[in-house]
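Allow me, if you will, to draw on your knowledge of protein folds for a short while. Thank you for your consideration; the sequence and its tokens are set out here:
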Amino acid sequence: MVLPFSASDHFNQFCFDGGGPRVRHSILYVIWFATVWEIRKERNNMIFNDKECSILRIVDKIKLLSFSWLKEKFV
């Protein structure tokens, strides 16, 4: 196990350490980017609008965003 110290280390560990086919890497890219995107949106929403969101709701948003991006990529 490697502990990532930067976002790029975390991305490389999440997307490349699992091995497997190229399609799997593409799916992991989408999940990683959707996760980072939703966390950033919720963080900004909390800072600028004083609104908090539950973790389960954020996870649901990540799943929905990942699904919609993957649906467009793999028609």
About this structure: The first helix runs from residue 7 to 16. The chain has one domain: 19-73. Helices lie at 7-16, 22-49, 55-73.
